[in-house]
Amino acid sequence: MELRQLEYLLAVARHGHFTRAAEELHVAQPAVSQQLRRLERDVGFELIDRTNRSLTAAGEILATRASRALSELEAARAELEQLGGLERGTVRVGAIHWLAPFDLAAALSEFTSRHPGIDITLREEDATRMLDMLGDGQLDLVLHNISAATERVDFEQRVMFTEELVVIAAETAEMAGRRSITLEEMANRRIVAFRRGAAFRDITDQAFAVLGLSPRIALESSDLVTIRSLVAEGLGIALMPRSLAEMPGQPVAQLAVEPADLTRSVALTRRSDHAIAPAAGALWDHLNQWLDEHR
User: Where exactly are the structural domains of the chain?
Assistant: First the structure.
């Protein structure tokens, strides 16, 4: 039984899908299947029901113990890093793609200039996946959109900023002179939306759900910049952070949303149920200080 195999088991348990687990682990899908078959031979039990990708009773038992074991190893890593102080270490950061108006690159650059012995690894995923990885000890800090699905009692969060959402549309004659649009009217038009399951999509879906509306989703994308380009070409309209709507590029019309005052909030999050490694703690403090100085 190898640690890598246990990590693969937990990834499949999180996603219920071998391919998505492989994407998270940055390995080929056959490698995940092969390692889990070896793990099953080692323990003498089937761990995953291949018909629905759910854990068997034996898989649930092993996954629970494996999660605890990996958490203990992460705690050991943190304690060992304490012996070296802040002269060395690695901080694993997860971040959503669009963080403007927060300048993550500048904040990280200043940190590394102060602590050249600390390495930073940066990973971009959707908020739900990254917070699962934070809970499993695979990430140290996460910067993400806040939604009901991202709230957990074992996390400590700092709201970084709150930003207005606007509707963007192609600059047609119809839209050029308009300043606002209602959610009811928007729901009856072709909408270009962020993919389902992401925190930003949860925010927009909730806005329609409160009014009992079922929006007409024509296109989906996992990238907000792509969504803006699709809208500029006239393929639909979209809800968008104002900072992205105002970025240089193909021109789009911006409309305020009525009657709702829609916003997104972005948070900096860490686990609160165990000691954080010195390097990760230093970056947490640095980012909080940066927010205070550049608000």
Answer: 1-78, 162-264
Tell me which residue of 93, 14, 97 sits closest to 266, measured CA to CA: 97
- For residues 201 and 211, give the distance between their C-alpha atoms in angstroms, rounded to a whole number: 16
pTM of this structure? 0.70
Distance of CA 139 to the CA centre of its chain: 11
- DSSP state for residue 260 in the 8-state scheme: -
pLDDT, tens only, 42-58? 889 888 888 877 888 99
Amino acid letter, residue 286: H
Strand ranges (E), 50-195: 54-55, 89-95, 118-123, 141-145, 155-169, 180-182, 190-194
* Domain spanning 1-78, CATH class: mainly alpha
Q: Is 123 exposed, middle or buried (0-12, 13-18, 19+ CB in 10 A)?
A: middle
- SS3 for 263? strand
